[in-house]
Amino acid sequence: MKLPIVAYGDPVLKKKAQEIADDYEQLDGLISNMFETMYTANGVGLAAPQVGLPIRLFIVDASPFAEDDQPELNDFKKVFINAQIIEEDGKKWSFNEGCLSIPDVREDVSRHENVLINYFDENWVNHEEKFSGLAARIIQHEYDHIEGKLFTDRINPLRKTMLKSKLDAIAKGIVKVDYKMKFPLIKKGR
Q1: For the chain, what is the domain count?
Q2: What's the gap between Cα 105 and its chain centre?
Q3: Which residues does residue 78 pair with via DSSP β-bridges, in sequence order?
Q4: CATH code at position 86
Q5: Which of 84, 91, 97, 180 is found 20 to 30 A from 135 (Cα to Cα)?
Q6: For residues 134 and 111, is the Cβ–Cβ distance under 8 A?
Q7: Are 77 and 58 in contact (CB under 8 A)?
């Protein structure tokens, strides 16, 4: 089932998400629905807060980048539950990022080259893994969501000020997308 993606301006996107227990109700269905939602919106990552749930869950599928001379991303599809970044290291590098909750806005964001992260997968197996390059970047972007941060929080304040009217328009639903969205500033009954 495709879930509506929460748009910029919704308070759930700025809230630090809570850990979940291994008996979280209907987790398999939620994960399946999140993958379906992400694929429908042509995304490579999706965090639970983006579908309105303030829980520490995100998914990634970086395989679309495998075509861009990144063979290590082939079949790079993962579920991250209760993730905690242990360390970010390596040279910082900029890459043009976007976000399904902030459609039509893309900005260069500087992030560390490597990330060491502890997480549970969908079978509640604990992992501590190091990722590099685009895989690390996608994980850091989605991890930000469960920490209540958006990629726009990581850009130059002047640039963010310049985007204010566009961001306000997204919050009001003045944006055209090919997927279902939930807008925080649209009044019910309109």
Answers
A1: 1
A2: 14
A3: 60
A4: 3.90.45.10
A5: 180
A6: no
A7: no
Residue 165 lies in a domain: yes
Distance, CA of 85 to CA of 129 (rounded, Å): 10
**Inside any domain, residue 190:** no
SS3 assignment, position 170: helix
In a domain, 139, yes or no: yes
Residue 187 lies in a domain: no
Per-residue pLDDT at 72 exceeds 80:
no
Average pLDDT, the chain: 94
Per residue in 14-38, is it b (16+ CB within 10 Å) or e — as a string?
Answer: eeebeebeeeeeebeebbebbbebb
Collapse the DSSP code of 158 into the 3-class scheme (helix H, G, I; strand E, B; otherwise coil) and give the result. helix
Question: Using CA atoms, how far apart are residues 44 and 165, in angstroms rounded to an integer?
Answer: 26
**190 pLDDT higher than 70:** no
Domain range enclosing 133: 5-182
pTM value is: 0.93
Q: Which two tokens stand for residue 89?
A: 């290291």
What's the CA gap between 100 and 183, in Å, rounded?
A: 12
